[in-house]
Amino acid sequence: MANRAASYVLAAVCLLVLAATVAEARHPRLVPAVFVFGDSTVDVGNNNDLNISVGARANYPKYGVDFPGSVPTGRFSNGLNTADLLARALGFKRSPPAYLSLTKKTVTPQMYKGINFASGGSGFADDTGRFLFGEVIPMSKQLEYFSGVVKHMTKLSGAKKTSSFLCRSIFLISAGSNDMFEYSASPGPSDDYKFLSGLVAAYKQSITALYEMGARKFSVISVPPLGCLPSQRLRRLKQMGTQGCFDPLNDLSLRSYPMLAAMLQDLARDLPGMAYSLADAFTMVSFVFENPRTDAWSFTELEAACCGGGPFGAAYACNETASLCADRDGHLFWDADHPTQAVSLVAAQTIFAGNRTFVNPINVRELALL
Ligand SMILES: *[C@@H]1O[C@H](CO)[C@@H](O)[C@H](O)[C@H]1NC(C)=O
Ligand SMILES: *[C@@H]1O[C@H](CO)[C@@H](O)[C@H](O)[C@H]1NC(C)=O
Ligand SMILES: *[C@@H]1O[C@H](CO)[C@@H](O)[C@H](O)[C@H]1NC(C)=O
Questions:
Q1: What's the mean pLDDT in 182-203?
Q2: Alpha carbon distance 220, 30 (integer Å)
Q3: Position 26 confidence tier, pLDDT thresholds 50, 70, 90
Q4: Any coiled-coil ranges, and where (predicted)?
Q5: How would residue 188 be classed by pLDDT, with cut points 50, 70 and 90?
Q6: Helix (H, G, I), strand (E, B) or coil at 226
Q7: Residue 6 pLDDT > 70, yes or no?
Q8: CA nearest 312: which of 247, 252, 238?
Q9: 141 CB contacts (<8 Å, ≥6 apart)?
Q10: Percent of the chain scoring above 70 in pLDDT
């Protein structure tokens, strides 16, 4: 199979380098670095010092209440997010830090371990989040920042070392939700298929751009059932007066998955050495909804946000004066639009080591070991 052949090529290229750096091979990390792109699901603080409204920042209480030291860091979570926990599963002590938190001096050592470019509120379209929140960093700009890092690395380490380093690293992408929110909120006539085709085309363009810069191993997280977020349950309640998930958004995320899967499969056939792991976030979250209690987890509140107020904890923002639930680990949702650390851990573990129901064609552990 083309996929397998491509994997062999990738393995061969990378083996040469592994042999050359025996000391590094003993390190517990499965890959040399993780680079992160996307939105608030994986942002670790890139928005903190930008001109952005509170809705797309999380650098104030009660965000971070369960983070070490109870500090708000810009993560849209009570604690760690999926990017942090996936990096930990890959053997990293520290999650890749926010690109915009680095200085000219600190970016150099850090670029050999990984950097996070993700920005809450952003999307694939350049204007996603812009009118709603301000200067969020669109995917095109995140890629531009990464391109600068690659140039810097090439200057310091040479083209050969840089490409063998990048081909072993993991590129995590979690994006698309905000494009979907804005499409779903825009008035006037809509064409779902056209929108989704455009979204998947933008995804393809971004992955191709990363590939051209040297990336080979992609961990992609699909769009979750957005209609079941507390904010969208509230939206349905307000618009229709009924309880439940907001179906039009769930339909969009459900329909986007096979399109994304097909695009990645085609791309891996066309780009020599490209490998990927696609996490089906829709199926992952649906599985937790249907199985809130298992040997591995126990969720008692599947609908309401832990931090916030009003119906579903979604009518009033999560901030310093907001009320907080007692059992954070029992809640699926931290605020109106984001998961708790507890469910992010389930997600990260599934992305890392889950079976084919949740991650295809391989999981991130297998991707790392290619
Ligand atoms: C910040 O953004 C707002 C609107 O989004 C704008 O009116 C304001 O001028 C900006 N401030 C700065 C310092 O750029
Ligand atoms: C928190 O949010 C509520 C409404 O969502 C607002 O009324 C209140 O002023 C905010 N508090 C702070 C400290 O920003
Ligand atoms: C994957 O694991 C889930 C949960 O344990 C299980 O329900 C499902 O049948 C498994 N799928 C495969 C393909 O093994």
A1: 94
A2: 18
A3: low
A4: none
A5: confident
A6: helix
A7: no
A8: 238
A9: 126
A10: 93
Strands 275-279 and 359-360: antiparallel
186 is an active site residue:
no
Is residue 356 in contact with ligand 3, taking CB distance under 6 Å?
A: yes
Ligand 2 geometric centre to CA of 319 (Å): 6
pLDDT digits (tens, 9 = 90+) for 128-182: 999 999 999 999 999 999 999 999 999 999 999 999 999 999 999 999 999 999 9
Tens digits of residue pLDDT in 241-272: 999 999 999 999 999 999 999 999 999 999 99
For the CA of 308, the closest atom of ligand 2 is 5
Q: Measure 341 CA to ligand 2 centroid, in angstroms.
A: 23
256 catalytic residue (yes or no): no
DSSP code of residue 4 = H
For position 29, which CATH number holds? 3.40.50
| Residues in CB range of 204: below 8 A, 6 or more apart | 263, 267
Residue 338 designated active-site: yes
Q: Is 320 in the pocket of ligand 2 (CB under 6 A)?
A: yes
Using a 6 Å cutoff on CB, does residue 355 contact ligand 3?
yes
325 assigned to some structural domain = no
Nearest 5°: the CA angle 219, 328, 286 is 45
Helix (H) or strand (E) holding 183: helix 177-185
* Index of the ligand 2 atom closest to the CA of residue 315: 5
355 CA distance to ligand 3 centroid (A)?
A: 6
- Residue 88 Cα to ligand 3 midpoint, Å, equals 24
pLDDT of residue 104: 94
296 in contact with ligand 3, CB cutoff 6 A? no
Domain range holding 116? 22-228+250-293+344-369
pLDDT of residue 138: 98
Is 334 inside a domain boundary?
A: no
Domain contains 351: yes
Question: Which residue out of 7, 39, 40, 337 is catalytically annotated?
Answer: 40
Catalytic residue among 253, 335, 337, 344: 335
Closest-CA residue, ligand 2 atom 4, reads 316
Q: How many domains does one find in the chain? A: 1
| pLDDT for 20 beyond 60 | no
